[in-house]
Amino acid sequence: MTTLRPFICDDMFHFNNVNLDPLTETYGLPFYMQYLARWPEYFQVAESPDGRIMGYIMGKAEGSGENWHGHVTALTVAPEYRRLGLAAKLMEVLEESSELKNNYFVDLFVRVSNKVAIDMYKRIGYTVYRTVLEYYSGDPDEDAYDMRKALSKDVNMKSVQPLKDPVRPEDIE
Amino acid sequence: MAGRGHVDVNERRLRPIYDNLDNGNNKVAIQLVDKVLKKQKDLHCAKVLKALALFRMGKSNESFTLIQEVASLEPSDDPTLQAMSICYREMQKPELITKIYESAVRKQPSNEEYHSHLFMAYVRMGDYKKQHQAAMTLYKQFPKNPYYFWAVMSKVMEAMFSSDDTLSKKIILPLTLKMVEKLAKEDKLEAEAEVQLYLMVLDLMDKHEEAITLLQGELGEKIVSEWNYHKYRIACLYAKMEKWAEANAAYRKLLREQPDQWSFYLSYFKSAFELIDSGWTPQEDQIFVDGPPDYTVDSIIHFVEDVIQLESAKDSRPQRGPYLARMELFKRLKERKNKDIEKLGSLTAMLLHYFDVFGDKYCCFGDLSTFLADLDKETIQSFLDSLWKRLELDPVDGKITFAENEKHLQRHVSFLQISRFLGKHESLSSDEKISLSKELLKRYHDGLKFGADLLSTDLLPSDMYCLFAAHLLLDVWKQAGDDGMLWRVIPILEKGRSNSPANHHFKLLLIRLYCIVGAFGPCLQLYEEMEIKHVQRDTIGYIVTRHCAPLGHFHLVSGVYNDTLKFFTVNHKDTTEYIISAYKYGSFPKIPEFVKFRQKLNNSLHYTTITVEKMISELLLEANANNLKFEDLIRYMEINPEKDEIVWDELSDNRDFTLLVSYDSEEKQCSEEDKKDSTEQEKGWLKLQSLVLRILTAAGLLLPTVNTNINKNGTETPDMGEILKTLVNEFETHLEQLEKNPVTHKKFPLQGPPESRTSDFLNGNHGNIILNMMKATSDIQHLHANGIDNSGEVQERIKNYLQQTLRLLEDTLSKNRQSLVTEKDGQKKLHYSVLPNMVLLTESIGYITLLSGVCCKLLKPIKSIINKRNRKKKEAPQAMPAIFETYKKFLDSIQQFADTVHIAVLDLDPVFVSMDLSQLSLVDKETAKCVTNRANMSDRELESSMWKKIEESYKQSSQNLSGILKQKMEYLATLKL
């Protein structure tokens, strides 16, 4: 039981149980506000009946021509609400928003080591489009998969034809 | 105006300056500017860039003079204006940006961009009226829809943030609606954002019927970017209009599509029961597109059962919503004492069914907790027995049966959470608690195998056992006051933390416990491990800022405070830009949201408290040290003692109190009332601190300064003596109010907010101690201002105040002076209340020292006047008034006293190595020796590591206090009349 609704600023006062997770980054306020100001419908939160934040998704629409697509910037679920299919549900909302905006596809980056997440994305129809070398800085740097799912606008599924060669972060459009 | 070629030349010349500014090479940027200016004296933009570089180097006065020089010339070229905007923004002077664009549009009235910049400048200021004017001017010249709607939105903001509600409702909003309707009638509404704004205005005016018509009409079709927007919005509008039949049918339809959306269930139930309560029945000719609404209990039950049926028939994983909805319905029927409740079956059966389906999910307990309270007392035990049976964890041949897999373990954890919540742990005896805790620790060790292939960023399934073991022992500690338990719990949590570094629950509870035992030392590292930053500084920061100084870790105070303040100042500057963005992108509903959010941050109780605490700590640590005179430092700090800058009614307590998990029964958890009371406590403390700060400031300003740099602008100086007197009265009244208020001394649950310092402060009588000293200072100022003649009474009063200050100090010391460790019946005990009390005492000595200095400097001129007089008329020299002797005595005694406290403080430097508490060890000898954590430490080693940390922390506190006291004593020794 969940309430899905648009993310609002005040949620930032309450998202600690989600953000204290070590893989969930807490950004400066401008980062969240920039998304809220430009793509409010791509920023959704799942709330439990007692008002706790269970997780949220943050994304945007960008690109031009056939590269006009929805992008998932952050997707996170608090540890206590995992394995409930919540991430998939949040993705569904973002995909619906992207459909409404006539996006060709939705894409996201994920650590190649994050098997749980990769499997989840595969289950809901995402495929690896390309590998981005050393996308995540750290010790050592880690590669990312750029995963994609075509939307109905991309009738011929052109956007998800996988690239053979990996790319460098600076070469991503 | 020069041709295009000229502009390019300028651009080329300025480029390297911009680059250097971007890279932080401010000095190089200035050199380049100077070079350019040699060639081209009147290149305004270069000057502005120089001002920016100067500002970034901290030369704010020089920078400001330079930029104002340019401003006075009213430049109107884009690069200069842009550069000036950046500079003013960094200087936090947004009002000056409006000035430059006001003059720019005067000079170039047809420049669309400048008009739009002017609008943005007003947005930064939150000047809604001028925003509206600027937007309308823009629209008249450049008739584009967005400009018109900027004007509309400006009106909406004026209405929403006006203090005059009638004005908003009766005049501003109707006017705004007319503006929108005018364009709508002319068929000129184009964008989705415009229709959104139209809806927003209707909503503010409670014109819901019109909103529905709009949504269902042609204009409604423009709203396309939100999924299911129309359906949600219309259902919600029906509910707002209390059209319950329509609302009910709408929500029922939505639930068929999304049976897990909890908010829909709440609205569905609400509307259905409204219909029942009003005795609603359908009229004969009434037609319902989606079928008649549910207006009987039977039909509600039927609907809910139906949703469950559909859900359980699905192949995919079941969603929790329908099952919980049934329990929610039970809860509501029970509240109404409705007999039909029987048709739902027993609550126990529903709970057990839920446990069967979702018991292996971490959220199971949280989901059920609201319904558990509805269990009848007599059924609780049989319910728990049934749960336990399902777990199949009964011991075999007296040996524990461990969970077989991760899901099994999680089901057991859910069981533990439920039974603790239902009071089953409370009712255990201390011995039973300890033995259950031992069992859970064994289960913890065994369960670690389930985390073997998890990443270090994952939480371990077994962590909860460890946390439960800790909670049980903390129960024993609280109930029996057995501190031995604390020394058991900390190493257990340290073990949990080293095995599961991603789990913040261990760290948060450790910070809490270390602070309780007076050891701040280990806390900062734990805090930093959680990577707390940005907005979390406001919501979580209190867990360290509350304890850092009060536990004597003054060497960390400025770092901790500065990190906090940096977040707030940077945020305040940066976030206005996103209000502007929201106008640009037409995200109108976000604009009031952003503004309110900024207000909450700007009025944050935590922010305000840290601002005051930081200044107080600076006075305490830095005044009269290292050649920095108190009276100069005060002036650098630019505090106006006359004015209370804090807007008390607007203060917003943004602290998060849900951080520490608790599975205690409802009445033992941190309640809404606790939270409210904690806010009140903190406000009370803030007021105390802010008055102390203002009083010290007023006292410092009584003294003249020789430093002319800071004795700026020759405005008339107010009568500081009067201000001081008023503030001291205010301080006294506030003390009385705090003493009287029962909330002041209220204690909160361990997992709730920490208590404010006020209680300890009052218990140590520190309020009265410094009050007496303040009064003495105020009276000495009176002598200074009005002369010593005929002042016998005042002198007598001062004598009393000073004696009283000393007497109270000595009382407090004798009450608090205690060895850190005592031994009774072979049991050693650490007295952890000693340290915070010594810190309070040291702080009071600090304030007294500052005021002593002020008194001394006020008395000096009086003495020299008498000396002078006596030298002139030699025959009958005037006897020295008693005040000087009184004061000398006081100075001697306070020095002696500080010395005594200093010795007490040195005693805080402990030797814990001898604190062997191992006879209480919880783990049996074999486990004690074996290594059960990633840090490769045995339980014995974890324990001695804890003592070492605490010992080091106390050593540090002792050193800090000693340093402060020594410095105060040295200063006092220099005071001579």
From TrEMBL, chain A:
It holds the Pfam family Acetyltransf_1. Gene3D superfamilies: 3.40.630.30. Residues 2-152 form the N-acetyltransferase domain. InterPro entries: Acyl_CoA_acyltransferase (IPR016181), GNAT_dom (IPR000182), NatB_acetyltransferase_subunit (IPR051646). Keywords: Acyltransferase, Transferase. The keyword Lyase does not apply. Its EC number is 2.3.1.254. The keyword Acyltransferase applies. It catalyses: N-terminal L-methionyl-L-asparaginyl-[protein] + acetyl-CoA = N-terminal N(alpha)-acetyl-L-methionyl-L-asparaginyl-[protein] + CoA + H(+); N-terminal L-methionyl-L-glutamyl-[protein] + acetyl-CoA = N-terminal N(alpha)-acetyl-L-methionyl-L-glutamyl-[protein] + CoA + H(+); N-terminal L-methionyl-L-glutaminyl-[protein] + acetyl-CoA = N-terminal N(alpha)-acetyl-L-methionyl-L-glutaminyl-[protein] + CoA + H(+); N-terminal L-methionyl-L-aspartyl-[protein] + acetyl-CoA = N-terminal N(alpha)-acetyl-L-methionyl-L-aspartyl-[protein] + CoA + H(+). It is an enzyme of class 2 (transferase). Catalytic subunit of the NatB complex which catalyzes acetylation of the N-terminal methionine residues of peptides beginning with Met-Asp, Met-Glu, Met-Asn and Met-Gln. Proteins with cell cycle functions are overrepresented in the pool of NatB substrates. Required for maintaining the structure and function of actomyosin fibers and for proper cellular migration. Belongs to the acetyltransferase family. ARD1 subfamily. Component of the N-terminal acetyltransferase B (NatB) complex which is composed of NAA20 and NAA25. This is N-alpha-acetyltransferase 20. It comes from Saccoglossus kowalevskii.
UniProtKB/TrEMBL annotation, chain B:
Transmembrane segments: none annotated. InterPro entries: NAA25_NatB_aux_su, TPR-like_helical_dom_sf. Pfam families: NatB_MDM20. Belongs to the MDM20/NAA25 family. PANTHER family: N-ALPHA-ACETYLTRANSFERASE 25, NATB AUXILIARY SUBUNIT, N-TERMINAL ACETYLTRANSFERASE-RELATED. This is N-alpha-acetyltransferase 25, NatB auxiliary subunit-like. The lineage of its organism: Eukaryota, Metazoa, Hemichordata, Enteropneusta, Harrimaniidae. The gene is LOC102802070.
